[in-house]
Structure prediction request, 214 residues.
Amino acid sequence: MKIGDSMRSKHMLIKKDPSKFNIFDKIAYFSHFICKSFLYAVFSLMLVLAVMFTVYYVDLLTNVKTGNSKFPIFGSYVILTQSMIPTINVNDAVLVKRSDLEEFDVGDIITFSSLDRAHTGMTITHRIVGKQHDKAGNSVFRTKGDNNFKEDDSYVPYNNIYGKVILRMPKLGYIQKFISKPLGLITSIFIPILLVILVDGFRLFIYYNKVRNE
Prediction:
């Protein structure tokens, strides 16, 4: 059989009416669909991450050259407490974006370095419930967890804010915990690769078995 004939047979399977598929055609067709969808999802994720990393890196270089001590333009944090339930649950991850002072309003959810005596230096994600000026005339924010009965004890100055929450990623914290361990990292890399190899291998087995019987 010529190479051209093999390619035509493969395209015939893809263009064939699914209602006329035998069991082997169905397995090959859905294996191809799953593998293709998986690769597209991985590529899309890598593209988004590449764009974000580029923006992050360019912003970092700009700040270093100009001597600015700004926080990174993007940051991600895993929520470890119940203070923002039901808006944000434990082990959800949030993506925050650095914003200018005038962009923060009451109702926004922000991630910041706390000045509370009980949580000094801890990274907190709470909602802005008030905005005013301190004795020196600087803008400060009053914050509160959606699941808390009272507001946070200390005001949050602008310089302590890492950024405004722009995206919540449910339960991503579990994945972060898993891949932070050596075994989890190895598994997360090799299982998708093995899956692609197995699916492609199964497709090839079905295809060549079909060609041999023709």
Notes: The helical segments are 3-15, 23-66, 172-179, 182-213. Residues 1-15 have pLDDT under 50 and may be disordered. The radius of gyration is 26 Å.
